[in-house]
Amino acid sequence: MKTDPVFRATFERYVLEHPDATYRDIAVALKVTTDRVYKCITKWKLPRPKLVVPRYDKQKILEYISAHPDTSYREVKDIFGCERKTVYRVIQDNNLPKLKHPCCKYNRDEIESYLLDHPMADYRELARVFRGSPGGIYQALIRFGLIDVEPHPPTKYDKDALEEWIKDHPEATYTHIARAFKKTSQQMYYAVHKYKLPSLRHSAHKIRTEALSSYLSSHPHATAKEIALHFGCDTNYVRKLLRKHNISYRYNFITKHQCADFECYLLDHPNATNRDVQEAFNISRAALQGILKRCQLPRLRHPQKKYYRASLEAYLLDHPHASAADIARHFNGTKVGVYYALRGYGLVLKNRK
């Protein structure tokens, strides 16, 4: 941790001149964080400040609980700024009855009448109306019997099907069997051990270089996800392995299509925009920019230029009260593109407030 000598001198002088200061006082005075104050004191071996343990007026907490028997632990904690265990300790030391659960502070009749008037109300709206939390509202509705919560049925597996699948795929991993039975790897791991079937190898195995090279030679445009699914391992592990063997992972991960395909598409569609190419090849904008840069293709036309001034003016003359959504629908574009085009051409919509 590099420190300015002027700051160190100021820090040491303040700590020595204020022996009763706490970490918080030093941090506020020197405009630093409490964590940095602690590190500086430990590194420079200065006298440690006193730790101030917050003390709460337990008598006031006791009086409030006695005056409000229907309160909850959360309300007391929020009012006095203490921890929940402090409230527990006060109640236990004074032999008071336990406070109600947060879901008990809701009245069944009030919630039921509100739901009859507002049948589409969600948990957040109920929490805002009855001054609670969505989780507390959910527990209260379950407790009052206003909603039915069905228990999750236990997962059942066919032992014979599992055993037959493992025999047919001796080199498979838990990732493969999970994909085959549409479960998670952890569920299949427990199922295999429950029925005492032969254990599968984990997905974190090492891929042999020969197998990876043969797969890439037959699938030169495979992505990292496809390689990971084929070998049953993690995507990050595939990337590290390809970097280790100096294989251009960008070509395998981002450039899924050949440059010739993009060149042919751009020749057939000279006025195509980024959005058109993304929808045609089902790729992201970042992947498209990487492909154009790698294949040394020209930048695509901005979507704004699909709205020509003459066409816009003619449409607005025929439809003077058209909105941006109408224009975007007519020109097969977006509202944002329409706004940029109108602003660039100096045109104004009449119905826009």
List keywords for this structure.
extended, 58% helix, mainly alpha, 353 residues, 6 domains
Description:
- The chain has 353 residues and is an all-alpha fold.
- It has six domains: 5-44; 58-100; 104-144; 159-194; 209-294, no CATH class; 303-345.
- The protein has 22 helices and no strands.
- It has helices at residues 5-17, 23-30, 34-44, 58-67, 73-80, 84-93, 108-117, 123-129, 134-144, 159-168, 174-181, 185-194, 209-218, 224-231, 235-244, 249-253, 259-268, 274-281, 285-294, 309-318, 324-331, 335-345.
- It is extended.
C-alpha Rg (nearest Å): 33 Å
Helix % is 55-70%
Overall morphology: extended
- The proportion of strand residues reads under 5%
Sheet having the most strands: none
SSE order, one letter for each helix or strand: HHHHHHHHHHHHHHHHHHHHHH
The quaternary organization reads as: single chain
Termini separation comes to 56 Å
What is the gist of this entry?
With 353 residues, the protein is mainly alpha-helical. The protein has helices at residues 5-17, 23-30, 34-44, 58-67, 73-80, 84-93, 108-117, 123-129, 134-144, 159-168, 174-181, 185-194, 209-218, 224-231, 235-244, 249-253, 259-268, 274-281, 285-294, 309-318, 324-331, 335-345. Mean pLDDT is 76; it is low at 149-153 and 250-256.
How is the topology of this model organized?
Blueprint: H1 5-17, H2 23-30, H3 34-44, H4 58-67, H5 73-80, H6 84-93, H7 108-117, H8 123-129, H9 134-144, H10 159-168, H11 174-181, H12 185-194, H13 209-218, H14 224-231, H15 235-244, H16 249-253, H17 259-268, H18 274-281, H19 285-294, H20 309-318, H21 324-331, H22 335-345
